[in-house]
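TEACHING EXERCISE
Course module: macromolecular assemblies
Task: Read the component lines below, then compare them to the predicted structure of the full complex.
Student: A.B.
Group: 4
Components provided:
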Amino acid sequence: MVLAASFVEDLVRGTLQGLPPGAVYGLIAIGFVLAYKTSGVFNLAFGAQAYVSAALYFQARNEWGWSNLAAFVLAVVVVAPAIGLVLERLIFRHLPPGSSLAKLVIAIGLSVALPNLFELIVGFEPVAGRTPEGLLPNGAGVFYDPLGLYSFSRDELTALVVAVLGAAALAALFRFTAIGLQMRAVVESPRMTELNGIRADRVSAFSWALSSFFAGLAGVLIAPRFNTLSAPDFFNLVVVAIAAAAIGKLVSLPRALAGGLGLGVAIAIIDTFLPRIVERQQWLEPIQENVTPAVPFIVLFALVTLWPELRSSKEQTDPLAGVDPPPPTPAALTRSPWLTRITIVFAVCFFLVAGLVVFLRADASWLFVVTQAVILSTIYLSITVLTGFAGQISLCQGAFAAIGGFTVFQLADRFGMSVLVGAVVGACIAAAVSALLALPLVRLGRVWVAIATLAFAAFFDAVVVKLPFVGGGGTSLLQGTRVPRPVIGPWDLADDKAFLVLAVLVFAVAAYVVSAVKTGTVGRTLAALRGSEVASRSIGISPTRARVTAFAISGFLAGLGGAMLSIQQKNVNYASNFAPFAALFWLVLVVSLGARTVEGAAYAGASFSLMDRIIFQGTFIGWILRSEDRIPGVFPLSPKWRFVLFGLTTIAFAKHPEGLVENGKRNAHVRMAKLSARRDAHREPSADDAVPGEAVA
Amino acid sequence: MTDVLTLDGVSAGYGPFHALFDVSLAVAPGEAVALLGANGVGKTTVARVASGLVAPERGQVRVEGADLTGAAPHRFVRAGVAHATEGRSVFASLNVEENLRLSFRRALGARGVAGALDQAFEQFPALARRRAQLAGDLSGGEQRMLSMARVLVEAPKLLIADELSLGLAPIIVDEIYAQLERLRAEGTALLIVEQHVSHALALCDRVLLLEHGTIIWEGPPADAADRVVARIFEHGEAG
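Instructor-supplied answer key:
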């Protein structure tokens, strides 16, 4: 009897304990569902928006000495909706309804760009140890303990109450008000809403202001949970919240809140009881610590892959989409062989010159960034295959790369195996994991693939990395995850120049393989699937086989690149190199520069590691002016501009999914071709005029 | 009396594609006009220009004399133009009742909604049985009835009906045309875009024949029949 009573008591305590974090998940889940319902955007930038408000509140209160209320009004009531309005007006209004993949990519770009832009404008620097404070005075110091089992802090109660009230208020808004109905109508078809006499642009602006207000509110309320405000933490919280939102099928606000609370409570209860089970069942010990952080991601992954109803609540297409002008025709549907030849000749010349300069003149730090650029280009080729060829957005390339890195580390550390062999083994393991992961994903829509891979990346980050046989466990905390440089016969790669040669060789082989894939059967199959899955199936193409192959190749390349990066840095450096939020920027870079070509990956690699050094520090201007003293005073620019710049270029993804550089290059080529055609024909070409015009004349 | 709709020298298209070339037409109050032509000659574009969905590149669009060229569609609606678009013209993600509420609320204010709903369900009992069902799950005929029900409660000055009969069973087409007849009796002008010629000819006062983006003939329905048939068969289209 005593045992039973204590069991119930523990159960209740666990439940109470789980409510505050559950309320946080619920708050974000509500905001996420709100944005999805009213704008059709899978708003991964929700965390970034919440972060901006939380940081602004903190800055106004602690740095500028404003009162709580004034800081709240600024951060949540004014700035948060204003951000939403700007995003709607400048970006999302111009996207046709239903372009969910483009919206997702833009949201990913924004989640990289917004926090950095904010930090640059306000001059905010996340400083460790300055704990954010809540809305109410002394929120972390006053406690309430209604049942004598668990004491809620005032901050926690505030978040809980606001989450419940917010869900109720928003549900009522959708259920009972005209604007609620109008917001749902506009998501489906702004034009048809207009035909009902309603101003669609105002409704959509209101939707964005409302969901952004909610993002700001959630940000300020959850900030006290963190020791330090940082954008990646907010992003990770959004991934957890998506799991809660998925429980509500992404449309139900009360169920999203319930999902959030449920997750919080489930985690707390597992935390309470698992240790006791483990006491009796010793073999469970290694997983004990890792079960709870993994729960949301396992739930999310399982829901996405195993619950078809979630996916079938797919968006409705706009019946009036035909009113839009057709998308601008790509400058050329296939590249002319001339363009390819010119590109190759240019690239060879450029690399010869650049290579010579690097070899003869570069110091150690330049060698480091150049080598890093080459290796990252190899990793980015994995995105070229998956996103460019297969049209799938994967957010777990960082995890694949880390698998390569950790394999090299483990094999070298435990068995003294050669790191080059280790790199190949690591790449193979990454390929196998990637192919396995692909199996449940190949039949999902593209947006769901992105979400499922995000769940996997978060799972890898929260659990797998901490396992001793992956990340090294406790010993790696002290010694790091050290990786030696290899020696091939007389060739000692501890020398940085020698290692650069190896990195270039690896990249060259990878680039050759990728271009062979592109022109080979796999590439053509993937291109067909990208065009129309139904049409491809009807001519006997198996989407499963083609996509699993693409995932495997991509995993191999990422794993290989990750291993090379670890060897170069002589350490895996997981957190700074491969964490999910860091890897988001990879995708942003490749997609904005050119996801369909090898050069695109190379540009992305160069941009990642060289842009800061060459452009932002003013070095390039210095070269042009031939004197370092004449570099204008605005330099050096903050490296954060890099994130802002590329984050914002994803906006172009909707119009130019092949990437900016590729698009520019093709446009230039077409213009050249037109010019020469004009010269030949001595007349105005009328290629742009439509055929009906002639018929009437 | 001012024409309820005037298109004056309108040219329009979609981006680089031109669909209409110097189209002029007028619809008088209470008049029923049929716009006929083969597939792809620009009939739907005329309808879209007339309701503001497509802004003309050249020319002017007037509703009851007021220049609405380039205005957003909601201003056309508020001026009394209703447009039942080609294909699905209901919100698939809203249920039947919400679809109706959306337009009644704007047209009649919060107080008028309940009465209008009753009236609509009385007129279309089939919809009343499905009031909580998502409009996307309705059959094609039921969807068309739903879009008619939205229009019928407060008779507009002009109804643009684009291919209302497309893909529907003949009995439902008859019913829809009966509703159009009723609307007309209440004084609503009609601009009917059709490939289904016989119904349109029976209903309308005047026929416009469109070809390659221009109006090539205009006249009474009695004279139109032969021409229409000839024209349409010339292009290999069975009306």
